[in-house]
Amino acid sequence: MIKQIKTAALLTLVLLATGVVWAQTTTTYTPGEFQSSNPFYPKPNPFYFEGKIDWNLLGITNPANTWDYLQRGIHKQDDLGDTAGAIQDYQTSYSMNNLSNNTCQIVTSASFVNGALPSVLTPPPCMFTVRLRLAHLLQPTNPDQAISLLKEVTQIDPLRLDVNALIGEVYIQKAKADTDPTQQQSDYTQAISFLQAELALSPVTSVVVAQTGDTANNAHVHWDLAEIYEALGNAALEKQELNSYLAATQWHSDTYPWRIALAQERLQTLKARQ
Amino acid sequence: MRSKNSVFIAGVVFTILLWLSGCGANSTTVANVQPTSTADSVQVQFKEQDYQRPEVCEPCHQRQYDELRSSVKSGYRNVSPLFNGLEFSSNLLAGGLLRPVYSDSTIVLPDGTPLNSNMFTTPVLTETRQVQAGFCFTCHNAHVERMGNNPNTREVPQLAGLGANFDPTQLRPLRDYHLVDANGNQILPAQIGGYPPAGSLPSLGAAGITCDFCHNVTGPDLNRSFQLDGFANMSLEVGESVEKTGPFLQPVAVKGNFHVATNDQSRIDFLRSGAFCNACHDVRVPNNNLTAEEHNMNPGGQSVEYYRLENLSTEWQKGAYNSTSNPFGKVIRCQDCHMSLFPFAGNTSYTVGDLNITSPTPAVFPQNYAAVPGVATDNNAPLPKRQVVTHYFAGVDVPLLSSQELKDRLGSDYPDPYQPGTDEYGLPLALATRRQALMDAAVRISLAKTDTTASVGGTLDVRLEAVALSGHRFPAGFSQERTAYVKLTVTDDNGFTLYQSGYVVDKPHPQTGEMAPDGNLDDEDLEHVEAVVDPGHFTSPYVPGAGTNGHRNLVFESGPDNGPDSRVFSGIPEGLVLFRNELMRVFLPGDTLGRTDANGNQTVASTAHFEETFSASFANSVDNYRSLQPLVPREYDYEIELPTQAELAEIGVTLKSPLHVHAQVNFEHFPPLFLRFLTAATGPNGPTGHDVHLLNESVIDDYLKNVEDIASDDFTVTLQ
Fold it and tell me: What's the average pLDDT block by block, 10 residues per block, for chain B (720 residues)?
């Protein structure tokens, strides 16, 4: 009898324990369990996430699409210093997000459906990051392709800052390497055109002056223009750009502060020549 | 089907086990509980108790009261001009939709659904408007919001008109409602946003997150979180009874049974876990995110889309500190850094990648009484000393208010954030000092991989490695405003500056009336971008949206130190290294950007246009990956052009070897341009047409105090 009671008690305890375990497994709260789909891997909606996400967070084993290749390229470029590998991945990404093979589109009002942007676009939007990054890496060896990529970015987002300035800088690089004076003149002219397009994107309006006190901006663009005009021997425009550079640095200084003294010195020299 | 007998036996056995585990003992010592039993479980119904002011807890828990009093989440946060300004300006944009509604609301949503519950009181959030209703207020004052269902205990009223019917001229900052007279009746400043009337006292809502609120929490409310996981939306279950959750089982009975300490192990475990913090330290804004699709997973709520503003809890949840794979070999919870002796309890040395790190040791707790001996217990029952937590909740903020205004709004005993002295453990009493120490522990940098030689006219490659040591990314929280950055200089041996990044320049700020440089650098923005956010302007009738209510960039230009975007998007190794995350607005074709071209014509996007925005309520995309990931070093390169010999000759400089590279991490809790936007948006020329007295240039100058040099390194380069 005692044995039966012991057995029954033991059975009860086992059942109870089993019940407790069952209860725990069905009610246990695991924080974040619903984020197991990886909260760090963004799903386009309809735009791709343009930027860099830490590679170790993405959980990409084998890149499967244009965005995966872009991210692996960024990882190779920024984290591993593997420029060749990055270029290869960017090129693959670009080939999968390309206007010429209709794998991407520039989003305009024509992309709207019933007057609204749909959450899925076919083909998906063209990305600017892959083009900007690939252009930067190709610039030393293939400036023409770099310019082509950058110009695509100005189609994707004509209001994006800095892109026209980057195109201008590539043309300056080309001009400095030119041995043909005509070509050099042409490249400098192109550079001027794009640098001025950059300035036009953030004009110094009366609102800007009233809100900031600035009478000029884009110091580095003015510096580049001054150097072009110096190379072209156009003292008047060089002087104008040096003055704009100094005005733009009045309240913002420069990452290369010695250029401020150099600009002042060059203005003095130009004045002395007059 | 189980038999009645088996149910009965199980119930008896379960009751016995509960008694053996102590629940029965507790329930018999407290006269005011009403146990009820069912066949399967014992449900104890404790007596309801109104939310208590912290002062009620003070006699028995003096130490905890004092500590909590000096944290920003207790009090300051709710009277903060920044929080109030942010909530206020977002309502100006949204037509008041972020103010709470209550059970007596007669508002009907376009689909016919009544809107009579807010973010906290809606059982299952299925409509964006429910998430919006009280969106900011909910995490700052959830219990006060719930009390608002009773008009007699309502602090923050429901607005008379919303959307197109919203009247901005009558909108009061939330803090206006957090004042009472000596009888506990609400009194309002005579002028909207005015100074507290003489003799006014702080309301319950003024106390922010109180003792009672956290210790009433019974667990996560999974149904109110978008992913059914207890993250964001203040998705907590809160019991409003005398049963409070403490950190351990079987505490000594409370004098007069004022409250009961729960013996519910799951409640205790939740209080002690990092998960407790998830409900408010992830913030998910119900705006469509155009670069990352996420939506409410609750049945019927799929149309509620959101973006992640604060992602701190997710970062911790998925990070190394929520595992044993970290330098301390154990899970380091939120409490281990923000409720312990950290960072004042010794250091630990370890290696992360190739970086040798020495940093403060987390999870060291003091031994103390949990309550005041001789006061807290009946018959002077003895209390043991135990391992206890601190309630300082050190963070990255210091108040943007004078000590006197803090006292006038929060009580005459409100501590000075800069007070001298230390507590019984040797921890600084000053919130500002604790902030400094916390920041000092958060990050380390190294220049060790920098080029050792350089030539005039050549390129110097400076390589900076940075690693966050925090349990989440650094910076975290409102990480799109929290501004951590690298200040870097390269000088020659005579001190001639060859390169600078992360610098600021003293300049005028006409937007807020500073017409000339004022000698203060703490109120200056970094030089990667020049931006002025449109504060909007008064119009009648009111029209919701950015057209007249601001939030777009009135000025937006690249600066000379433009590193953040060129590094991320173009991969160009130059310019500012900024760890601040970035809010973005994707303007769609046909949208106006809010500024004009050289001819005065509105700039209109013809294609999709991505642009940084400084307004969380205007953003429809976010980059939360510019901040530093914990325990994963990241390298930032600077390709620095050295001047040519000819250029040096032009300015009469001869460089002296060696070159000195200095890098340091600085921190500012808010970018000045953001404060100036809020100043103007809540000022006399903003959409209300009058000043609501939250911010001005003087407040920015006096109280925006940055933390410099929280980590640094130096490197010497031989000039060849």
Answer: 39 35 31 41 76 95 96 92 98 98 94 94 95 97 97 97 96 98 97 97 96 96 93 95 92 88 94 96 96 92 95 95 96 98 98 96 97 90 94 95 97 96 97 97 98 98 98 97 98 98 97 95 98 98 97 98 97 98 98 96 98 97 98 98 98 98 96 97 98 97 95 98
What are B365's two structure tokens?
């707790």
> Tokens at residue B604, please?
């209109």
Q: What's the half-sphere exposure (Cβ side, CA atoms, 13 Å) at B706?
A: 23
Domains of chain B from N-terminus onward: 4-46 (no CATH), 75-207 (no CATH), 439-502+627-669+708-720 (2.60.40.10), 509-576+582-623+670-703 (no CATH)
Chain A: closest CA distance from residue B493 (Å):
15
Q: Do A160 and B623 touch (CB under 8 A)?
A: no
Pairing type for strands B217-220 and B236-238 reads: antiparallel
Which candidate from A129, A212, A219 shows the least CB-CB separation from B532? A212
How far apart (Å, rounded) are the C-alpha atoms in residues B5 and A199?
86
Answer yes or no: are the C-beta atoms of B118 and B125 closer than 8 Å.
no
Contact with chain B for residue A151, Cβ under 8 A = no
Q: Which long-range contacts (CB under 8 A, 24 or more apart) does A172-180 make?
A: A172/A224, A172/A227, A172/A228, A173/A139, A173/A143, A174/A143, A175/A228, A175/A231
Residue whose C-alpha is closest to residue B202's, from B116, B158, B141: B141
> What class, spelled out in words, does domain A161-269 have in CATH?
mainly alpha
H/E run at residue B355:
strand B355-360
Q: What is the DSSP code (8-state) at residue B510?
A: G
* Dist. CA B420–CA B412, nearest whole Å: 18
Chain B hits for A49, Cβ within 8 Å? 291-292, 621, 623
Pairing of strands B217-220, B529-533: unpaired
